[in-house]
Please model this.
Amino acid sequence: MGAFMNIKQYVAEKAKKAKAASRQLANISTEIKNSALLKMAAGLEKESATLIAENKKDLVAAEQKGLSKAMIDRLTLNPERVKAMADGLREVAALPDPVGEVLRMWRRPNGMEVGRMRVPIGLIGIIYESRPNVTADTAALCLKSGNGVILRGGSEAVHSNNAIVKVLSRAGAEAGIPEGAVSFIDNPDRACVMEMLKLNQYIDLIIPRGGEGLIRMVSENSTIPVIKHDKGVCHVYVDNKADLAMAEEICFNAKVQRPGTCNAMETMLVHQDVAKTFLPAIIGRMKKAGVEIRGCAKTKAVVPDIKDATEKDWDTEYNDLILNVRTIASMEEAMDHIAAHGSQHSEAIVTDDYGNARRFQREVDASAVFVNASTRLNDGFEFGLGAEIGISTTRIHARGPMGLEELTSTKFIVFGNGQIRK
Amino acid sequence: MGAFMNIKQYVAEKAKKAKAASRQLANISTEIKNSALLKMAAGLEKESATLIAENKKDLVAAEQKGLSKAMIDRLTLNPERVKAMADGLREVAALPDPVGEVLRMWRRPNGMEVGRMRVPIGLIGIIYESRPNVTADTAALCLKSGNGVILRGGSEAVHSNNAIVKVLSRAGAEAGIPEGAVSFIDNPDRACVMEMLKLNQYIDLIIPRGGEGLIRMVSENSTIPVIKHDKGVCHVYVDNKADLAMAEEICFNAKVQRPGTCNAMETMLVHQDVAKTFLPAIIGRMKKAGVEIRGCAKTKAVVPDIKDATEKDWDTEYNDLILNVRTIASMEEAMDHIAAHGSQHSEAIVTDDYGNARRFQREVDASAVFVNASTRLNDGFEFGLGAEIGISTTRIHARGPMGLEELTSTKFIVFGNGQIRK
Model:
C-alpha cells in the first residue's frame, strides 16, 4: 500500500508538472521550438558515447532475461542509430508548425467572422515498447505541435530512455522550453501505466504503440481518450481486368518488401478469370523469396504444391513471410471477404476497369484504400505528411498515418463588432 | 445473474444488429437518406396524437415520482413540439451530405495521388436524459452522416422515446434504410448503459448528453471513445480599451438571454480603469433583470450593495441568474483567472485594442474564443454548421459545436499506376 501510494503520487506529480508545462508550451514561438529541436539533435550526437553506454546496461539485462534476437536488435543503439535519431529531430524542425493555422474563415449573416484555429491538444501520454528511438521521435513531434508529452517506455529500455530524455530535457531548457514539457516515467513498475490511464485531469490523449496486449490493456483501462495503433490484416485484390504485370509487382512488394509491418499484405485475393495466368508466376516468385503459401481449394486446383488455408488463417496478421491466397468469383466476393476478415487498415485493388476502381475505392472501409498501388505505401512519409507518430486504427480524430496536424486540436475563433444572441 | 445475462445479451444483440445495419448505411445514397428523413418527419406529424398519448404515460409517472417542474417541462410533448421535431428532420434533409467529400488531393513525387475522403464513423451510441426531441434530432444527424445509431434515453421518457423510434424505424424501412440503423435500448435498467460502454467491437463512438454525473460515469467506464458535452464556466472580460456601450450589451446578453445554457456567462471580469464607469450601470441593469451579483472586494468598493463572491463561486456553473464579478488590474490577470477557473468552453473579450484582441484570441484556451461578441453565440446554428448534436468539450476529434462533418471519419484514398514501396 505504501509503495502503491508512492507510485500514485509519483505519476500524478509528473503529470501535473507536465500539464503546467504544456500550458506554457502552447504559446511558445516556432523559433524557440525549432531551436530546441536542433539543440536536442546536437546533444544526442555529442552524448552518443554516454547513450550507447547506458544502452549497454539494457542489453546486458535483456540477454540475461533471454529476450529474442529481434527484440534485442530493436533495443540496440549504435553510433549510426544515434545519428539517425538526431537527423529525425532535424527533419521535424524543418517541418511547418501546425499551431495557429486557420483552416478557413467565413462570414455569418450577422456580420461576425468565424474560423477554426489549430491549437495543441495539451498533454499527450505515449506508452510504448522496446525501441529507444521512439522516445526521441515522439518527443520531437509532440514538442513541434506544442504539446507536452509524458513518455512511458518499456522497462527493458529504461536506461537508454532515461539517458535520451536527460539529453532532450537539458537541450530543451537551454532553448527556453518549460521544464517538464518532455517528461518520462522512469519507474519500471507496471502500476505506473495504470495510474497514467486514470489521470484525465492532466492528460488529454493516450497513444499506445506496441503489441496487441498493450493496446487492449490501454483501451480497456483508460479514462483518457485513446488513439490506437493496432494491427493490420491487409489485402490486395487482383481484378479480372487487372494489368497482371503490375499486379505481380504490387503483390510482391506488399508481401515481401518488409513483411513485419502493419501495412504488409496478409491475403491475396485473385479473380478466377485470371487465376490460371496469374497464380503460377506470382506464387513461384513468392516461394523463391521464401514465402510460405496457404491457399483455398480453388487456388490449389491451379497451383497444387501449397498448404491449405484454414478459417483462422484469413484473420491472422502474420507479420512474416506467410501469405494466404484465395481465388474468388467476383469483386463483390472480394469486398465481402475484406469486410469479414480485414482490420480496416490498408486495402488495395489492381484493375484497369474504371467502374471497379471507383466502387472498390468508395465501398471498402479502411484507413487507406489503394487503386493500383502497394498497401506498403500507407505511411506518413509516403503520403507527404512529413513525419508520422504512427498509423491510427481508431476511427475518430485521426485515421491512418498521423502527422503533426493530427497532433493538434482546434478552437473556433470569432471576430465580432457587438454581436449578441437573438 | 439470470437477469444480468439477459441484459448483456439484449444490449449486445441490439448493438450487433445496429453495427451490421451501419455497414450497409455507409454506402446508401443521399437520395434515400433524405427521403427517409422526410418520411420520418411526415410520420411524426401523422402520429402526433399517439406520441402525445404515450408521452402522457411518462408525464403521469414523472408526477408520481415528484420530478421538478423544469424536468417535467422538458419531458412534455405537445402538437407544437412534435411539429418542431418534424421540422428539425426536414432541416437535416436539406443540409449537404458530408459523406464522400474529398477535402483535398495532392500528387506525390512518385506520381500517385493521395486524398482524404469523409466516411461515416460507423455506429454511434448516444446516452441522454429526459428531452424526447433529442431522440429525433440525434437520429436524424446520425442517419444523414451515414452512421448507425443506438439510442439510450432517460428512463423517465421511455414511452415517448419508444413511440418516436417506432415511427422513425417504420418510415426508415419504407425508404430503404436497413433495419436496426436507428435502434433504441428500451429496457430502463441502468445496467444497459454499463453494457453499452463495453461493446467496443460494435460501437465506434459514445456521445453522452446530460448532467455532470452522467458524463463522469460514461467517461470512467467506457472502453469506447467518448466525446463529452460537458459544463461551461464562461467569462466575458471587459478591457480598459472596451467600447463600454458594446460591453454592456454583450455582458447582458451573455448572462440573461438564456442563463440555463452551457455558453452563458458565469463571471464578468472588468479592468479596474473602467470599473467606476462601467460597473454601476451594468450591475444595475443585471439586478433589474433579476440577477444576483457576487463580487470581489474591488468590485464591492465601487458597487457596495452586492454579495461577496467566495473562492468556490469562481469555479461554479450556476446555469441560473447569478453572476460573479471581479475587477482586475490587467488583461494578464484576466487570462490567468480564466486559465485557473474556466472550463475551456466559451470565452470573450470586449476591446477596441488590436493587440489585446489578437493576444486574447491566441492565448486563451477554449472551444470558442470571441472578440466583441457574446459567448451565447457558441452554437452550431450560429456558426453556420447547419445543425448540431451538441458542443464538445473533448479536445480530440471535434471541439466546440459538432455538426454533420464532425460526425464523420476520413479514409485516405490513393490513385496509382503501379507504385510500390522502395
Notes: The domain at 234-382 of chain B is CATH 3.40.309.10 (Aldehyde Dehydrogenase; Chain A, domain 2). Chain B has two domains: 2-230+398-415, 234-382. The longest strand of chain B covers residues 408-419.
